[in-house]
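It would be a great kindness if you could assist me with a short task in structural biology. The matter concerns a single protein, recorded as an amino acid sequence and a row of backbone structure tokens. Could you please explain, in whatever detail you think fit, how the structure tokens follow from the sequence? Thank you for your consideration; the sequence and its tokens are set out here:
___
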Amino acid sequence: MRAGAARRAGRPDIGEAPEGVGGELFRELARMVAALAEVQGLRSFTLPYPGYAQRALDRTVMHCLDVGETPPRSLPELWEWCRTRPAGDPLFAVPASLITPGATLVHSVGRIPTRSCLEVASHGPDGGVAADARVLLDDLEARCGTGERYWQCRRFLACHPVVHQRDRFGLGWSKAVWSRVKDLYGPLPESLLVDGVFLCCASCGLPALPRDGAVPVPGPSATDADIWCEGEECPRDAPPKLIREPDQAWILRRSLRTFLALPHRTEEAARDALDRAGIDHEALSGPLSAYRLRDTGPGIVDIQVYDRLQPALLAAHLTDSAPLTDRTLVVVPDALVGRNGYRKAFTDALPTLLRDRLVLTTPVDLVPDLGRARREEKDDA
């Protein structure tokens, strides 16, 4: 038995499909949605469909016929199903212990893959969308040559999911940095434009759309506008940024927006907490945002930073991929841990042997939890 399989023994896993054909189909549809969003305009599904999309449609039709459900007649209709039918729908019946029952694969407003979709699509041996982000960063690191250059470029990507031509003269950009990262950006998609204007969330910097389809009017009332953004969880305490010349702007690839830029605020907060406490740390290769702590006692202690909506899938990812250090503190945004059921779902999805070694925490609780971990090590000794 391989190490990952041994560690997850006794734990339900969507990759092993204990939830049945419906759950397996839900994962296949997640991968289809994620792939289709990258290679084809979301509003123009034309025949012949890509092979993976046709296979997903055929499989959905067969499953519907097996369970007595009227099947979708086309890829556009299947896309609409992914927008309206959640994981808990009887058609899929994915256990709530694996995926939040209300999670859909296509967002009702953005009409693009949801964060939950990308997390489901990233689950499994090949790592899916999250693995794509890691491959892109590995390639960037190889091209940079030195660690300092790489971290300059990585920070630029994390801080600038959307860039505009005029920003190149106002943000103190380094030409050397831009020359290394510009291939990771592409033109703004037309599907995210509203009356020729592109919106960015004031909190996460990711693409945004007004729920009523109208561009918000600048002014005090703009803070109350009902806005959707790719971050999905952001507070609406400031109006979105408007880009009125979208043809002069570029957007970071979706995998890096979701798995690098989105967790960046949590990563910075965690590093700040360690710096204030005088705890030295060094960046690790492998996971997207990981650090090894120095002088924390006899054991090896790492931290890994994530912003994932599905706690059971995060636990499964860590179970299969986390290095076997003495302890890893898994840092997620405070708002997620404060959500009812998040911590329990994460813990329940871990094998018993890993529950003391993978500690869920937040930037606020990171240093206190590290202190408790040290005391437990001393007591065990």
User: Anything to note?
Assistant: Residues 1-18, 220-224 have pLDDT under 50 and may be disordered.
